[in-house]
Specification:
By secondary structure, the protein is of the alpha/beta class. It folds into two domains: 156 residues, P-loop containing nucleotide triphosphate hydrolases (Rossmann fold), CATH 3.40.50.300; 67 residues, no CATH class. Helices cover 39% and strands 27% of the residues. The protein has a six-stranded mixed β-sheet with strand order 6-7-8-3-9-10, with helices on both faces. Strand 1 and strand 2 form a beta hairpin. Helix 3 runs parallel beside helix 6, helix 4 runs antiparallel to helix 6 and helix 7 packs parallel to helix 8. The two termini are 29 Å apart.
Length: 232
Amino acid sequence: MLELSDITVRYGPFLAVDNVSLRVDAGEIVGLVGPNGAGKSSLVKTVGGVVRPISGRVLFEGKDLGSIPTHVRIHLGISVVPEGRGLFANMSVEENLQMGGYSLASKSQTAANIERSFLMFPILAERRWQAAGTLSGGQQQMLAVSVGLMSDPKLLVLDEPSLGLAPIVIGEIGRALRRLRDEKLTVLLVEQNAKLTCSVADRIYILGAGSVQHHDSADRILANPDVLDHLI
C-alpha cells in the first residue's frame, strides 16, 4: 500500500533522513522505532506531504504522490495523526470528530464514525461536549486517534501516540491498535516505545541517525536479545 523508496530529507545543511526505503503492505501494522532525532517525524511529514524530500519517491497504492498536496492525500485515503495531537483545543470532542470527518460524503456516515469512536474509547462519549483542551493527556490522545479514523482512511499514520502518557493509557492505545489490526486497517506506527510497538506490529523498522539500521518481523526482534537491548 505504501512504499518509500530512497527518501532523503534535508533542512538546510542538516541531513534528517538518509536514503530510507520501507514498505507497508495492506492490512499490516508496521512499526518505525527510533530515538529522538532519528528522522521519524520527517518521514511522517514526507508521507503526509508536509515535507518534500530532496530525492526518492513516495508511492501509495502504486501512485507516485510526488507534489500531491496534503488535502488531496487525505482524499486518497491517507490519514496522519501528528505528534502533539493537532486538536482544536477550544472545540468540543464531538466538534473535533466532525472536523476529522469533513471529507466524508454524508452526515450519516459522520455520525456512524463518531459512534464507532465512542465504542473504541468510551470515556470520549462521557466527555462528548467537553472542550478538547480540558481533557487529560491520555484522553486527548484517544481523541486524536479517533479524529484520524474519522475519514475512513486506507492508511493510518500515527506519530508517537504514546508520548508522555501513563502506562495504563498506553495500554488503552495498544488495545485500540490491536482492534484496528483485527479490522485489517493498514497502520504505520511511529514510536520511541519499543514495547508497545513490538506488541502490536507485524514488522518493525529501526531508524537511527536518519537511516534504517534493522528491519525484521516483530517476533524475530522480540527473540533477538541484542536488538532488544538496543531498543528497550
